[in-house]
Amino acid sequence: MTLTITTPEEVGLSSRALARIDTFLEEQYLAPQKIAGALTLVARRGKIAFLSPLGRMDRERDEPMRVDTIVRIYSMTKPITSVALMQLHERALFQLSDPVHKWIPAFEHLRVYRQGRHPAFVTDAAQRPMTVRDLLTHQSGLTYGIMSRTGLDSAYRKLKILTEPTLAAFIEKLATLPLEFSPGTAWNYSVATDVLGYLVERMSGEPLDTYFHKHIFEPLGMVDTAFSVPADKLERFAASYMRGSDGRLQLLDDPRKSPWAGPTTLFSGGGGLVSTAHDYLRFAEMLRRGGTLDGARILGPRTVELMARNHLTNGSDLGKAAVALPGDIRAEGVGFGLGLAVVLDPARAQTPSNAGELSWGGMASTAFWVDPREELTVVFLTQLVPSSTYDFRGPLRSLVYGAIDV
Q1: Which of 2, 162, 245, 297 would you label with 217, given CA atoms 20 to 30 Å apart?
Q2: Does residue 150 have a pLDDT over 70?
Q3: pLDDT band at 149, cuts 50/70/90?
Q4: pLDDT in tens, 33-58
């Protein structure tokens, strides 16, 4: 199953304007060796209008970027996990208001961090229990060690919270720590979606990798998306990089020696998947079309509409609700739905996109967005950690929306 490739003009885009994407990436990032390679895919009205691989997917082996290059999508795993959980919502296996301790009893009496270092925390009682909706919206009170903001973040790093052999072991360790804030009172990027992955396993009775394959990947024809890269696909697996202290590009993860090159038992719903541009386009197009693609119904349209609404407390935006944000996320005029960022006010968000645009990205600077009003889906892939190193998303939006003719 493949989405049709067409000329930009057939779907109301300008070929000349879209060509600026390659010029921008070449001049600003590839020529000065800030990134090794990139792949940009722009689809409109259900057809691929622009698909351009640039540079190298593996600089050390001089392997060019390909249209079918496999990359680490990290947090772009999160929308997939959220969709999986909402499939179970459609089966009435839970309600958004259900307390998480219904499936994780150890979460019933979690307290809230006030001060201190692990294990000598000073804590307060939470105002209310954590709900499933809190997890979906990152209003759970959980955090990430990468935030480096409080003593609780430090404890996540000290305990290596996401290095356990299984999701069950991860949950057991997580339950020993307090929350950053009382659930529902703020927004904080966190391991919440990894907890959602555990809930998918508990509610469905299936390991997360099996559930994803049966209920999302196979129906959508996502043939290259998984928690590891099999041996017969390693030649398509990209290297990942970081900017060294000298400003130069440095190899971070060799694809032939990568943890993703072998099997895993920790299925991270928050950041464990690899994928391709075509695979992720199929997932994103399913969202744009209200939960269906090529006859495969993944979610009902009303469920997708619910996911696309702003669920932040009191209708707030991330600028007001967030205690900590990834460095590449715009906050003003942007809300958060059930697993996805949603544009509320394009003027305040300083973006040419429309209210209702859904998006998210990954730690290796990957990104996607869906604009239902423009019938537009964009997938951008590169492999540079962390995603806050450079701002790819803002310029790409300017270039893509500048290419719209009608």
Answers
A1: 162
A2: yes
A3: confident
A4: 999 999 999 999 999 999 999 999 99
Paired tokens of 127 = 């105002």
Look at residue 330 in the predicted model and tell me its pLDDT.
81
Residue 175 has pLDDT above 60, yes or no: yes
Q: What is the mean pLDDT of the chain?
A: 96
Q: Check residue 138 and report its DSSP letter.
A: T
Three-state secondary-structure class, residue 353: coil
Strands (E), 222-336: 240-243, 249-253, 274-275, 292-293, 296-297, 322-324, 334-336
Sheet containing 37-44: order of strands: 63-64, 47-58, 37-44, 376-381, 367-371, 358-361, 341-343, 334-336
Domains of the chain: 1-406 (3.40.710.10)
Name residues whose C-beta falls within 8 Å of residue 92's C-beta, 6 or more positions apart in sequence.
none
Q: What residues have CB less than 8 Å from 140, skipping those under 6 apart?
A: 100, 130, 134, 179, 183, 190, 192, 195
Distance from C-alpha of 403 to C-alpha of 376, rounded to nearest angstrom: 12
Separation between Cα atoms, residue 120 and residue 56, nearest integer Å: 48
C-alpha distance from residue 344 to each of 2, 188, 308 (Å): 32, 19, 10
CA atoms within 13 A on the CB side of 347: 0
pTM of the model: 0.98
Say if CB 72 and CB 141 are below 8 A apart: no
What average pLDDT score do residues 128-144 get?
98
Distance of CA 217 to the CA centre of its chain: 16
User: SS3 of 334, please?
Assistant: strand
